[in-house]
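Homework help board

Subject: predicted structure for assignment chain

Our instructor gave us this sequence and asked us to write out the predicted structure in token form, then describe one feature. I got the tokens but I'm not sure how to describe them. Can anyone check?
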Amino acid sequence: MIRADVRGVRALTRRRVAAVGVVAVFAVAGLTGCDAAVQTPGASSVTSTPAPAATATTPAPSLVPSPSRTPVPSPTPAPSSTAGTALAAVEALDVKGRAPRTGYDRDEFGPAWQDVDRNGCDTRNDILGRDLVDVAYKARTRECVVASGTLHDRYSGDDIDFVRGQDTSTAVQIDHVVALSDAWQKGAQRWDDARRTAFANDPLNLLAADGPLNQSKGDGDAATWLPPNKAFRCEYVARQVAVKLDYDLWVTAAEHDAMVRVLSTCPAQQLPTSDPVPGPGGADLGALKEPTKSPTKAPTKAPTKKPAPRDADVTYANCAAAWAAGAAPVHEGDPGYSRKLDRDGDGVGCEWAP
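My token output:
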């Protein structure tokens, strides 16, 4: 009995030991698992080895774009426009298509060469007096009518001798920097007569120029005609920009691009300001002073030949005759002056060519 109990106890003990052993095995297995988890950093250091390799290969593609930056040409935006410059002002002009030329006529801008500033001298002589040097004036015209002078022509760069006369006056012509026909097609056809007349006689828009070159220009804008003298192109285009801004005229896309192209070579070029004509007759009176000669001649010629009787012999049937004789405009006191030639009674007859 006791042996059986002992055997039973032993068997029970063996079963418990076996159970404990199983538990121990699971415990060890659990510890091993924990060890494995603890060991994972070691394993991750092994598995992380490819990670740096992957990151090492990642920067390589990022280096590829850097060479592509070099070919991008940054010098293109070099002509930066500064406020107040002609280049900056171009962007203030409206860009539109050219309107039809239908209805254009020179007379739409008033009779040629009026005395709009009421200085007693027509616009043509005002500009000749302003732009020529060594100017000589026709006698008894109050230093208005330019008889001769020299033009340092900015369009060609040449010097041109001007002599007033039916066959010689055309050597120097007065150019509308923004041509009248061009203005008509870009806004002027909507103006009233007074504004068009002011535009046609505005000194800012007028330059004395080589006659044949002025003829070749026609009504060209900056896209179709530029002065042959390249040194003057910046100033010429800047003047066109100033005039178009003042009178709210638009430009075509081609004209806009041509203006930018020229002014980009001189980004500091300023807009010209209003260009009034100085002096009572519209000229710089320092070059020649004819009135000083008359006192010396007066004592000798006055007793024998009085100018008045001789003046009475000169008459002009109309303004066409006065212009053909090279005498127009005819000022009060000039040979041939009469009230019928001076319809507005301002003392200047035949102010414009018929």
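Reply (TA_rk): Your tokens look well-formed. For the description, you could write something like this. DSSP finds 14 helices and seven strands in the chain. That's the kind of observation they're looking for.
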